[in-house]
Amino acid sequence: MEAGSSNPTHSDPTHASNELVLTKDGSHTLYSARFNQWYHSLHGAFDESKRIFLELGLDYLLESGKREIRILEMGFGTGFNALLTLLKAGQSPVVVDYTSLEAYPIPPEAYRQLNYDEFMHATVLQSLHEAAWDTEVRLSPTFTLRKVHATLQDFLANETFGEPYDLVYYDAFAPSSQPELWTTEIFSGIGRHLQVGSLLTTYCSKSDVRRALKAAGFRVEKHPGPQGKREVVRAVWEPERSNES
Protein backbone atom coordinates (compact mmCIF):
# COMPACT_ATOMS: atom_id res chain seq x y z
CA MET A 1 0.00 0.00 0.00
CA GLU A 2 0.92 3.60 -0.51
CA ALA A 3 -1.09 6.74 -1.03
CA GLY A 4 1.03 8.62 -3.51
CA SER A 5 -1.14 9.63 -6.44
CA SER A 6 -3.12 12.72 -7.24
CA ASN A 7 -5.74 10.63 -9.07
CA PRO A 8 -7.84 8.94 -6.38
CA THR A 9 -10.43 6.31 -7.20
CA HIS A 10 -14.02 6.40 -5.99
CA SER A 11 -14.42 5.01 -2.50
CA ASP A 12 -16.36 1.87 -1.66
CA PRO A 13 -19.51 2.96 0.21
CA THR A 14 -19.46 -0.28 2.23
CA HIS A 15 -16.29 0.84 4.04
CA ALA A 16 -15.49 4.07 5.85
CA SER A 17 -12.14 5.78 5.48
CA ASN A 18 -9.68 4.53 8.14
CA GLU A 19 -12.04 1.71 9.09
CA LEU A 20 -10.16 -0.62 11.44
CA VAL A 21 -10.19 -4.39 10.99
CA LEU A 22 -8.40 -7.27 12.70
CA THR A 23 -6.61 -9.43 10.13
CA LYS A 24 -6.33 -13.20 10.41
CA ASP A 25 -2.96 -13.14 12.20
CA GLY A 26 -4.27 -10.82 14.92
CA SER A 27 -2.75 -7.57 13.64
CA HIS A 28 -4.78 -4.56 12.53
CA THR A 29 -5.10 -2.87 9.18
CA LEU A 30 -7.02 0.16 7.93
CA TYR A 31 -9.13 0.90 4.87
CA SER A 32 -8.32 3.77 2.49
CA ALA A 33 -11.50 5.19 1.00
CA ARG A 34 -9.38 7.44 -1.21
CA PHE A 35 -7.87 4.43 -3.00
CA ASN A 36 -10.53 1.80 -2.29
CA GLN A 37 -7.92 -0.52 -0.76
CA TRP A 38 -6.91 -2.01 2.56
CA TYR A 39 -3.43 -1.01 3.69
CA HIS A 40 -2.48 -4.65 4.33
CA SER A 41 -3.66 -8.13 3.44
CA LEU A 42 -6.71 -9.25 5.40
CA HIS A 43 -4.99 -12.63 5.64
CA GLY A 44 -2.48 -11.01 8.01
CA ALA A 45 -0.76 -7.63 8.10
CA PHE A 46 2.16 -8.96 10.15
CA ASP A 47 2.67 -12.07 8.02
CA GLU A 48 2.58 -9.99 4.84
CA SER A 49 5.11 -7.40 5.98
CA LYS A 50 7.40 -9.97 7.56
CA ARG A 51 7.55 -12.17 4.48
CA ILE A 52 7.83 -9.53 1.75
CA PHE A 53 9.92 -6.81 3.33
CA LEU A 54 11.91 -8.45 6.12
CA GLU A 55 12.55 -12.01 4.95
CA LEU A 56 13.04 -11.22 1.26
CA GLY A 57 14.67 -7.84 1.85
CA LEU A 58 16.26 -6.85 5.14
CA ASP A 59 17.02 -10.36 6.38
CA TYR A 60 18.51 -11.28 3.00
CA LEU A 61 20.91 -8.32 3.16
CA LEU A 62 21.84 -9.11 6.75
CA GLU A 63 22.64 -12.68 5.79
CA SER A 64 24.87 -11.36 2.99
CA GLY A 65 26.92 -9.49 5.60
CA LYS A 66 25.70 -5.91 5.18
CA ARG A 67 25.88 -3.91 8.40
CA GLU A 68 24.79 -0.48 7.16
CA ILE A 69 21.57 -0.50 5.15
CA ARG A 70 19.75 2.40 3.50
CA ILE A 71 16.06 1.68 2.89
CA LEU A 72 13.56 3.60 0.76
CA GLU A 73 9.93 2.80 1.52
CA MET A 74 7.19 3.58 -0.95
CA GLY A 75 4.28 4.24 1.39
CA PHE A 76 4.67 4.86 5.13
CA GLY A 77 0.96 4.12 5.62
CA THR A 78 0.22 2.52 8.97
CA GLY A 79 3.91 2.50 9.91
CA PHE A 80 4.01 -1.28 10.28
CA ASN A 81 6.92 -1.88 7.90
CA ALA A 82 8.94 0.82 9.64
CA LEU A 83 8.07 -0.63 13.05
CA LEU A 84 9.17 -4.14 12.10
CA THR A 85 12.39 -2.77 10.63
CA LEU A 86 13.19 -0.67 13.71
CA LEU A 87 12.66 -3.68 15.97
CA LYS A 88 14.78 -5.90 13.72
CA ALA A 89 17.58 -3.33 13.68
CA GLY A 90 17.59 -3.34 17.47
CA GLN A 91 18.14 -7.10 17.48
CA SER A 92 20.79 -7.24 14.74
CA PRO A 93 24.34 -5.98 14.10
CA VAL A 94 23.12 -3.33 11.67
CA VAL A 95 22.48 0.41 11.38
CA VAL A 96 19.44 1.34 9.27
CA ASP A 97 18.83 4.67 7.53
CA TYR A 98 15.12 4.60 6.62
CA THR A 99 13.44 7.03 4.21
CA SER A 100 9.67 6.64 3.83
CA LEU A 101 7.36 8.46 1.42
CA GLU A 102 3.73 9.27 2.15
CA ALA A 103 1.49 11.76 0.37
CA TYR A 104 -1.61 11.17 2.54
CA PRO A 105 -0.62 10.56 6.19
CA ILE A 106 -3.03 8.66 8.41
CA PRO A 107 -4.60 10.97 11.03
CA PRO A 108 -3.80 10.48 14.73
CA GLU A 109 -7.29 9.22 15.57
CA ALA A 110 -6.68 6.34 13.14
CA TYR A 111 -3.12 5.29 13.94
CA ARG A 112 -3.74 5.46 17.68
CA GLN A 113 -6.25 2.61 17.28
CA LEU A 114 -3.69 0.25 15.73
CA ASN A 115 -2.60 -2.65 17.93
CA TYR A 116 0.92 -3.03 16.53
CA ASP A 117 2.74 -2.12 19.74
CA GLU A 118 0.62 -4.59 21.69
CA PHE A 119 0.99 -7.20 18.96
CA MET A 120 4.79 -6.76 18.79
CA HIS A 121 5.32 -6.14 22.52
CA ALA A 122 6.73 -2.72 21.64
CA THR A 123 6.06 0.91 22.55
CA VAL A 124 7.34 2.81 19.53
CA LEU A 125 4.55 3.00 16.93
CA GLN A 126 3.35 6.42 18.04
CA SER A 127 6.91 7.79 17.95
CA LEU A 128 7.16 6.70 14.31
CA HIS A 129 3.93 8.48 13.40
CA GLU A 130 4.72 11.59 15.43
CA ALA A 131 8.27 11.97 14.11
CA ALA A 132 8.69 15.25 12.22
CA TRP A 133 8.23 15.20 8.47
CA ASP A 134 11.00 15.99 5.99
CA THR A 135 13.83 15.75 8.50
CA GLU A 136 16.00 12.98 9.91
CA VAL A 137 14.95 11.70 13.33
CA ARG A 138 17.13 9.23 15.21
CA LEU A 139 14.71 6.91 17.00
CA SER A 140 17.32 4.49 18.33
CA PRO A 141 21.09 3.98 18.11
CA THR A 142 20.48 1.68 15.13
CA PHE A 143 17.56 3.36 13.31
CA THR A 144 17.19 6.81 11.74
CA LEU A 145 13.88 7.77 10.12
CA ARG A 146 13.18 10.39 7.46
CA LYS A 147 9.51 10.65 6.53
CA VAL A 148 8.94 12.56 3.30
CA HIS A 149 5.51 14.13 2.78
CA ALA A 150 5.38 13.84 -1.00
CA THR A 151 4.28 11.70 -3.91
CA LEU A 152 6.81 9.34 -5.40
CA GLN A 153 6.79 11.36 -8.61
CA ASP A 154 7.69 14.57 -6.76
CA PHE A 155 10.33 12.79 -4.69
CA LEU A 156 12.05 11.38 -7.76
CA ALA A 157 11.91 14.76 -9.50
CA ASN A 158 13.34 16.71 -6.56
CA GLU A 159 15.52 14.36 -4.51
CA THR A 160 19.22 15.05 -4.83
CA PHE A 161 21.47 12.11 -5.55
CA GLY A 162 23.26 11.05 -2.39
CA GLU A 163 24.26 7.67 -1.08
CA PRO A 164 22.38 4.96 -3.01
CA TYR A 165 19.66 2.91 -1.36
CA ASP A 166 20.33 -0.76 -0.68
CA LEU A 167 16.69 -1.82 -0.43
CA VAL A 168 13.30 -0.54 -1.59
CA TYR A 169 10.10 -1.57 0.18
CA TYR A 170 7.67 -1.04 -2.69
CA ASP A 171 4.30 -0.97 -0.94
CA ALA A 172 2.18 1.18 -3.23
CA PHE A 173 -1.52 0.49 -3.54
CA ALA A 174 -2.38 -2.02 -6.27
CA PRO A 175 -2.05 -1.16 -9.98
CA SER A 176 -5.84 -1.14 -10.22
CA SER A 177 -5.86 1.89 -7.88
CA GLN A 178 -2.55 3.55 -8.74
CA PRO A 179 -1.46 2.35 -12.20
CA GLU A 180 0.88 5.33 -12.61
CA LEU A 181 3.12 3.96 -9.83
CA TRP A 182 3.81 0.62 -11.55
CA THR A 183 5.43 1.77 -14.79
CA THR A 184 8.85 1.37 -16.36
CA GLU A 185 9.36 5.12 -16.02
CA ILE A 186 8.76 5.00 -12.26
CA PHE A 187 10.99 1.98 -11.73
CA SER A 188 13.73 3.56 -13.85
CA GLY A 189 13.52 6.67 -11.69
CA ILE A 190 13.94 4.58 -8.57
CA GLY A 191 16.87 2.77 -10.17
CA ARG A 192 18.77 6.03 -10.48
CA HIS A 193 18.91 6.11 -6.68
CA LEU A 194 20.23 2.54 -6.37
CA GLN A 195 23.53 0.76 -6.89
CA VAL A 196 24.13 -2.51 -8.72
CA GLY A 197 22.77 -5.30 -6.53
CA SER A 198 20.25 -3.16 -4.64
CA LEU A 199 16.92 -4.87 -4.01
CA LEU A 200 13.27 -3.96 -4.48
CA THR A 201 10.63 -6.13 -2.82
CA THR A 202 6.89 -5.93 -3.44
CA TYR A 203 3.71 -7.93 -3.02
CA CYS A 204 2.64 -7.37 -6.64
CA SER A 205 3.69 -10.10 -9.08
CA LYS A 206 1.41 -9.20 -12.00
CA SER A 207 3.04 -9.94 -15.35
CA ASP A 208 2.89 -6.34 -16.55
CA VAL A 209 4.59 -5.18 -13.34
CA ARG A 210 7.35 -7.75 -13.79
CA ARG A 211 7.80 -6.60 -17.38
CA ALA A 212 8.04 -2.97 -16.27
CA LEU A 213 10.68 -3.86 -13.69
CA LYS A 214 12.71 -5.80 -16.25
CA ALA A 215 12.47 -2.99 -18.80
CA ALA A 216 13.71 -0.53 -16.17
CA GLY A 217 16.83 -2.58 -15.43
CA PHE A 218 15.87 -5.04 -12.69
CA ARG A 219 16.36 -8.79 -12.65
CA VAL A 220 13.07 -10.14 -11.35
CA GLU A 221 12.70 -13.10 -9.01
CA LYS A 222 9.39 -14.68 -8.01
CA HIS A 223 9.17 -16.08 -4.48
CA PRO A 224 6.42 -17.82 -2.49
CA GLY A 225 4.25 -15.27 -0.76
CA PRO A 226 2.56 -15.11 2.64
CA GLN A 227 -0.81 -16.69 3.32
CA GLY A 228 -3.31 -15.65 0.65
CA LYS A 229 -0.62 -14.64 -1.85
CA ARG A 230 0.90 -17.31 -4.07
CA GLU A 231 3.84 -15.27 -5.36
CA VAL A 232 5.65 -12.05 -4.51
CA VAL A 233 8.61 -10.32 -6.14
CA ARG A 234 12.18 -9.54 -5.24
CA ALA A 235 13.91 -7.51 -7.97
CA VAL A 236 17.66 -6.90 -8.21
CA TRP A 237 19.00 -3.73 -9.81
CA GLU A 238 21.23 -4.88 -12.69
CA PRO A 239 20.89 -2.25 -15.45
CA GLU A 240 23.93 -3.37 -17.46
CA ARG A 241 22.68 -6.95 -17.59
CA SER A 242 19.25 -5.70 -18.66
CA ASN A 243 20.77 -3.67 -21.49
CA GLU A 244 22.68 -6.72 -22.72
CA SER A 245 19.65 -9.02 -22.79
Automatic annotation (TrEMBL):
- Molecular function as annotated in GO: oxidoreductase activity, acting on the CH-NH group of donors; tRNA (5-methylaminomethyl-2-thiouridylate)(34)-methyltransferase activity
Q: Which SUPFAM superfamilies match?
A: S-adenosyl-L-methionine-dependent methyltransferases
According to the lineage, what is the superkingdom?
Bacteria
Could you tell me which residue ranges the MnmC-like methyltransferase domain spans? 160-236
A Pfam family it matches: Methyltransf_30
Q: Show the NCBIfam families listed in the entry.
A: tRNA_MNMC2
- Protein name as it appears in the record: MnmC-like methyltransferase domain-containing protein
Q: What is the lineage of its organism?
A: Bacteria, Pseudomonadati, Bacteroidota, Cytophagia, Cytophagales
